[in-house]
Write a structure and sequence with these properties.
17 strands, alpha/beta, 12 helices, binds flavin-adenine dinucleotide, TIM Barrel, 412 residues, 2 domains, SH3 type barrels, single chain, five-stranded antiparallel beta sheet
């Protein structure tokens, strides 16, 4: 096997590992933290996690609407220099004009960012359309820019040839834009039922006809030159297995890497699953509700659940890589991998005292449903006001207080 150096493509290393009999590799995803202190702490954490887990590759996300463009690149380059096989996310809404700058040519901005990544030795890119920037509901293409991830993949192959390994996103339950509310759930087919979700008494599903369009489009993204699919988070392994089998039916033969969201906190889990309309099996939902007030029990359960999911995936023979959305935290990831014997007492290395500094750049200071502390005690965010202040319901009291941005802190 050739040396695994950071300037190699993921797909080449993965193929070599498979040929050498390695069954399961790991990969880790991080996001750019908001503060300089957070960045410093993240560097230390990435180093620790690399030492403990030897990930095949390390992803760095690109902030919604290009809000963290410079920092994402800086972090991915740092990862590259410190021995990670860096997999930099890049979206079609790439870079915002800086103060004093004229409008940015969106294609040139993306080209320049790709060139800077390549010049710094990065050989792996996740080509994405991107989410709308904070505060905006719908994603809009910039004028003269790319309309979707497929355009970006085509552009990269046209202008950069085979310099980059390319990953794209896949959605086992359908992309959220293709998931609609179902008026009468009794009309759903068995396949639709299996990927449907329910929130607040409503049922949502990517209907068969829309799912077919999603798969046709995914095939186009892969045929345009993608090497790898990394999936959206899921909590029902059966949905993922069906998705991989469907990929094969559609003639999509590249590795499909499951994106594993670690369960670290009740508020975050609820918020994210509702936002993405993710299917949450009834027993998982009930379990989470039963421990919602016990942060330590949620983390413990996060490990137990993660172990079950990973074991099921490995037993299925459908995967080669377990990709962890770390949320820039390590305890749950180590807990899962130690129990699976994919790491050796990594938990002994945990240092999450700095967890409060791992808030994403560009994100709100807290979101509705988050647990926070302020001078009045612990509470839960009930409403966020446009200036960043939060209406907080203080625990054990009926009182609501409004606290300015910075006067309340998220509890981790
Ligand atoms: C693994 C992973 C990593 C991510 N990382 C980031 C990140 O770092 N930064 C960030 O901002 N967001 C990230 N996202 C979120 C992602 O940007 C959003 O989900 C976004 O809404 C869609 O991106 P995409 O690349 O899947 O889009 P696309 O592949 O462009 O698809 C989006 C939707 O449009 C439809 N569509 C688009 N073009 C066509 C067409 N020509 N024909 C038919 N249908 C079409 C697709 O079927 C799909 O429903 C990530 C998502 C995943 C799964």
């Amino acid at each position: 096997m050739a040396a695994i150096t950071p300037d190699r493509k993921i797909i080449d290393i993965l193929n070599e590992k498979k040929a050498a009999g390695v069954k399961t590799c790991l990969s880790l995803e991080y996001f750019p933290p908001r503060t300089e202190e957070g960045v410093k702490n993240l560097y230390a954490r990435m180093d620790r996690m690399k030492g403990a887990l030897s990930p095949l590759f390390t992803d760095m996300t690109w902030g919604a609407g290009g809000s963290t463009a410079d920092l994402s690149l800086e972090l991915a380059l740092h990862a590259q220099k410190t021995g990670h096989v860096s997999n930099l996310h890049m979206t079609c809404t790439n870079i915002q004009a800086k103060e004093g700058e004229e409008d940015v040519d969106p294609k040139k901005a993306i080209h320049d960012a790709l060139q800077a990544a390549l010049d710094g030795g990065i050989r792996n890119i996740v080509a994405l359309r991107g989410d709308p920037p904070a505060g905006e509901e719908e994603w809009k293409a910039s004028e003269g820019g790319f309309a979707c991830a497929l355009d970006l993949v085509k552009y990269m192959r046209e202008h950069f040839g085979q310099e980059f390994g390319i990953s794209v996103a896949g959605y086992p339950e359908g992309h959220p834009n293709a998931i609609s509310e179902v008026a009468d759930p009794s009309t759903l087919t068995e396949a639709e039922k299996a990927r449907s979700s329910s929130f607040d008494g409503k049922t949502y599903c990517c209907l068969d006809a829309d799912y077919k369009k999603e798969m046709d489009y995914l095939k186009e993204k892969v045929d345009a030159g993608s090497d790898l699919i990394i999936t959206q988070m899921f909590f029902d392994v059966e949905v993922f297995k069906t998705f991989v089998k469907d990929c094969r039916k559609w003639g999509i033969n590249c590795p499909v890497v499951p994106g594993l969201m670690c369960i670290n906190a009740y508020g975050g889990f609820k918020k994210m699953t509702k936002f993405c309309k993710t299917r949450v099996p009834a027993d998982l939902d009930a379990k989470m509700d039963s421990i919602k007030d016990d942060a330590a029990a949620v983390k413990e359960f996060g490990v137990e659940f993660g172990v079950k999911v990973c074991q099921d995936l490995m037993d299925s023979g459908l995967i080669e890589v377990l990709h962890f959305y770390t949320l820039n935290l390590e305890k749950v990831v180590y807990g899962i991998l130690d129990q699976l014997k994919l790491s050796d007492n990594a938990l002994a290395l945990v240092n999450e005292k700095d967890a409060a500094s791992m808030v994403a750049k560009g994100s709100a200071w807290a979101r509705v449903g988050d647990e926070v502390t302020c001078e009045h005690g612990k509470g839960v965010v009930d409403e966020l006001l446009p200036d960043g202040s939060a209406v907080i319901v203080i625990s054990g009291k009926d009182d609501k207080v409004t606290m300015a941005k910075g006067a309340y802190q998220k509890v981790f």
